What we know:
The structure is a homodimer. Helices cover 45% and strands 15% of the residues of chain A. A six-stranded parallel sheet of chain A has the order 2-1-3-4-5-11, with helices on both faces. The first copy, chain A, has a five-stranded parallel sheet with strand order 7-6-8-9-10, with helices on both faces. In chain A, α1 packs across α2 and α7 runs parallel beside α8. In chain A, α12 links the parallel β8 and β9. The first copy, chain A, has three domains: 44 residues, lambda repressor-like DNA-binding domains (434 Repressor (Amino-terminal Domain), Orthogonal Bundle), CATH 1.10.260.40; 130 residues, Rossmann fold (3-Layer(aba) Sandwich), CATH 3.40.50; 128 residues, Response regulator (Rossmann fold), CATH 3.40.50. By secondary structure, chain A is α/β, with parallel strands linked by helices. At the A-B interface, α4, α5, α6, β2 and α7 of A face α4, α5, α6, β2 and α7 of B. β2 of chain A pairs antiparallel with β2 of chain B. Chain B binds a DNA duplex through α2 and α4.
Amino acid sequence: MIGIEEIAKQAGVSRSTVSRVINNDPNVSERTRQRVLEVVSSNNYVPNRAARKLAGGRTGVIGLVIPIGVSRLFVEPFFPILVQSVTDRCNRLNHSVMLWLGEPERERRSITQILSNDLLDGVIVSSFQDRDPIVAALHQSQIPFVLIGRYPDSLPVNFVDIDNEECTRRAVNYLIHTGHKRIATITGVAGTLVSRVRLQAYRDTLARAGFQVDENLIAEGGFIEEGGYAAMRKLAAHQPDAVFAANDAMAVGAIRCLSELGLRVPEDVAVVGFDDAPFAASYKPALTTVAQPIAELGRHAVNMLMQLIQRPHTQPIMEVLPSELVIRESA
Amino acid sequence: MIGIEEIAKQAGVSRSTVSRVINNDPNVSERTRQRVLEVVSSNNYVPNRAARKLAGGRTGVIGLVIPIGVSRLFVEPFFPILVQSVTDRCNRLNHSVMLWLGEPERERRSITQILSNDLLDGVIVSSFQDRDPIVAALHQSQIPFVLIGRYPDSLPVNFVDIDNEECTRRAVNYLIHTGHKRIATITGVAGTLVSRVRLQAYRDTLARAGFQVDENLIAEGGFIEEGGYAAMRKLAAHQPDAVFAANDAMAVGAIRCLSELGLRVPEDVAVVGFDDAPFAASYKPALTTVAQPIAELGRHAVNMLMQLIQRPHTQPIMEVLPSELVIRESA
DNA sequence: TTGTAGGCGTTATCAA
DNA sequence: TTGATAACGCCTACAA
């Protein structure tokens, strides 16, 4: 493997100068820069990240942590979309992604150990739980990190989130305005803020519209297709004429259940999902969806993290993506 | 961050000794080892990977490369399952995983650059194409790597694969033995060996059973659900009474199409998939599946890679997992 | 604008 | 069985 020393020799300069060129130090004459750059590219030289890290520089590696179990990992489209968008954005910025998935609770401690000592310039965490030890550890460490989703305790942490309240409000209002009277909801995972927020917004919106909230019309679906199916089974007994599912996977499960019960969607029961997952867009029968592009979240998280890495803020950044409502009605 | 120096001081030994303990060097007295180990764990000490790499050691990081596009990434369960099984196995072995996904052809060169210089002890590549430049580059480099799936050219590379011929044969024979006469097939992605092999095995099995192979009963599905749906639409015109789909995603697509056409599965048209994907197991209506646990592939690939890293072979290892046939028939 | 030199935390080689 | 000590490749003052 060819090193900085060799490049320096070929370009007729010192290692320092090569280093400056590589790191975009302005204090290099244009002529020298060009010469060095030429040698660099003709040799396909890439600086050694380990050495760079050791010398106090960046590695160009960021960590992506998604501590959810296999059952969700395999069925929720959220996962591949997020991973893809994050890696894609990083690769475009000449960075690499190190991935940690769904470790059980007891192993989380060792993860944080690794994270803090590792080759990472920064970390992105998604799908965490309330008071997640990973988040706590990260917060104590010096490593820059960004959460995808708001964090429960009022910890001053950097996060990027969607406007859950607004999205939910629009979804429920859509159902109200289209004349539905018994609007049910399928919630996500108890013990996550995102689920609570969407549920609360559901309640508030109904209440504000003068509806009585019927507890029989609320069921938990765990964010997965199977859970949406099971929840719909329970809800069906109480004859809703519409369902707001807290994500698309559960919406699809609900539709599967409804069609088994011989109910038409949306004529008999209207269904609205959440996420604007690609698979939902092509799903038949009709699925209406609140748009919240997951990929956008990933991109923004990476961008924010890059900012933090370059100049660590004291002020935490909290970014809430503007909400959109895209109702898809299929033929 | 606490380093080896500090541990040495607290344990009253030299850095060298601590290093020996960490790396399981037998030349340490039991008493010393215990003392060091104690200090290590009480300080939550973890060796710095960058430094370790620089000094000639391992980083404990392996790369996972899956060069497929977004369209497959989002809809094929293959992806999350493989990623999960690989990361899980690695984490259990105290290793980390660096991920590269679906870069377009033109960017592959830079990937290999990164790979070869990076912090990686080894690399796993899946879903490559025939004569993939990534594989070629890896083969020229010194870095240990394992392919998931056999490689076309007779390059002597390490791989772990499933027994595609045998699996396909069993699937098709199952359809023959259950009395089907017009057995169609939906193939994967042209330009991948795995697709060609499954198609060829389909032809051979039919021929050996005395069937005439009807080219109208062969359609390409690209390994995705939508593709399976579209392929089934074409095939339906030629009235097959059974379909062998080269993976479960396409099988699900085919079933969706059939049910839209008012055909019952498996009474009117039997469907057999491939992969034993979890989602397929719970899919209704009836889907019969050739079992080939993807997670097993991931686990084996990691194990093989670890072997290679410890003692690089000259002889390439080629492991073919024994095939299984699990036909699931749902109620 | 450029070069020199020290150090980052570890492993490996040699002596002791 | 242990302890010095020289790399490993790079970055960053500091000096020129």
